[in-house]
Amino acid sequence: MTEQATGSHHPQPRTRTAAPAAPAERMTGAQSLIRSLEAVGADTVFGIPGGAILPAYDPLMDSSKVRHVLVRHEQGAGHAATGYAQATGRVGVCMATSGPGATNLVTPIADAHMDSVPIVAITGQVSSKAIGTDAFQEADICGITMPITKHNFLVTDADDIPRTIAEAFHIASTGRPGPVLVDIAKDALQNETTFSWPPQQDLPGYRPVTKPHAKQIREAARLVNEARRPVLYVGGGVLKAGATAELRILAELTGAPVTTTLMALGAFPDSHPQHVGMPGMHGDVSAVTALQKADLIVALGARFDDRVTGRLDTFAPHAKVVHADIDPAEISKNRVADVPIVGDAREVLADLIVAVQADHEAGHKGDYSEWWEHLNFWRNTYPLGYEVPDDGSLSPQQVIERIGQLAPENTLYAAGVGQHQMWAAQFINYEKPGTWFNSGGAGTMGYAVPAAMGAKAGRPEATVWAIDGDGCFQMTNQELTTCALNNIPIKVAIINNGALGMVRQWQNLFYGERFSNTVLHDGAEGVPGSTRGVGSIQNRGTRVPDFVKLAEAMGCVGLRCESPDELDKVIAEANAINDRPVVVDFIVHEDAMVWPMVAAGTSNDEIMAARDVRPDFSDGAED
Ligand SMILES: Cc1ncc(C[n+]2csc(CCOP(=O)(O)OP(=O)(O)O)c2C)c(N)n1
User: Fold this and answer.
1) How many whole angstroms separate alpha carbon 526 and alpha carbon 511?
2) Is there an atom of ligand 1 within 6 Å of 445 CB?
3) To the nearest whole number, what is the mean pLDDT of the chain?
4) Cα 180 to ligand 1 centre (Å)
5) Which residues of the chain fall short of a pLDDT of 50?
């Protein structure tokens, strides 16, 4: 067992109600696999068939409960499973054949592992007798995915299929969620077996701890009420635990500021007066500084990622740390916790509310009024902002902001990786849990389109916008064909700056503006002496590919927007199309940069609010 997380469980239904016990029936392993998927409540599987998994595809055709979505690349199947899982709270499922089919799943599996997303990947394997012979399309996918799965199984006996599927779904969705791979040899799929449900599960040693220790909770409550500069540092674990209502109660009870990480946007309303923003490399000055100057950090389902802490040995030097996490391996991994709490975030928060309240009743309540003066000063002095280009071209931040403002209620957003991802995090308001999906831990370009597809397949009633970069889009856009053919009408905004923008930003700031291999258009920018392509996008030559034509070729509506005057009209047009996927090619200025920024490897104290703008912290907040 490659178990890395023994934490616990999740209150939302991740799998649908198990089928009632059925009498044993004779059938093939493949039929037993499909029956097992039906029994655990899997309603959607994203995948591509091939030799080793082919026996499973035959009975899949007859299932009225499991819908199979035929993707165009297995990477798309994996990210779609992730998007589905994040949008529905259930386990996402993807399927592939042996060898290259399975290895194409490696990136999305690694991605789901980094972001603790519950998916089950089912792969065909060569026949059990051929395993280890370098048979055609053989790859040791269990070996390959060992460090990037919560657990994986190799099944060589048809009789083991129902139990393995039940265990895989259980492991994926309980404790700290994560990806589980089930690799099934072809002969196990072909052989006769007996199917009965529910199977007896056998997972010795897997007992995630959900209930926090009362003494630790009391200690945490005491620190909260004694602190003068506390911060609730909220990570994705709070969303996964379905603990957002409890978070709000605790926040309002204490009056402490709240910061939600990139993985936790929507866990606490952006508009709430106690929300001080997102921390991290491109976080709000107020959130980064709040953590930096805090005397107490209460980390809830967050993991002190390097993008949040900046240079670790200078992170939050005055703070005591309460660290609550379902996964004991996270606690004190990067920052030593003064009060470690192992437990499910919802249970931790529920218990903390009671303990804090009891302290209040006993006359101990924290006074954070002076802290709020500092927080409000930072918030008001260094708000997020952007410049509108004076050459009449579109500002990428404005495009993203307007998409958020014009979107129907309950719109879901998936982002790629790069500048557009950071702007989507900064300039769209996330008010509700489960509305924002991105590749936070792995930073996987190509995540947005297939993740949006998975989210829309799981939540067909919701509007789903993918906010993508022109670089990212070129990695996985073929899944738009899948969307067009399977009635999955997502909307894609390509924030087309003609460059690998985030990398270009680093070249701009740290490599003396030498733009090595980051230009995606055919202009000659970056070449010394060139007069073409420098400055604005209008100087570019032929656009390759033409995203509007590409979208149309894939059965989508393709729109283009090049100026601020057209912006609202084009977004409204895209919002009005619900029978087909829509792609909007937003041609934006290429020089925009993401601010604020803490340069990699530097201290959060060195945050830059904008180019050449270093916030002034000489207000003695931590004195
Ligand atoms: C699969 C993968 N390859 C490379 C990178 C490194 N990388 C990070 S951001 C980025 C540029 C993304 O460009 P684009 O999609 O156009 O987005 P922009 O930053 O311009 O908004 C690259 C190459 C990555 N994160 N993922």
Assistant:
1) 12
2) yes
3) 93
4) 27
5) 1-16, 525-539
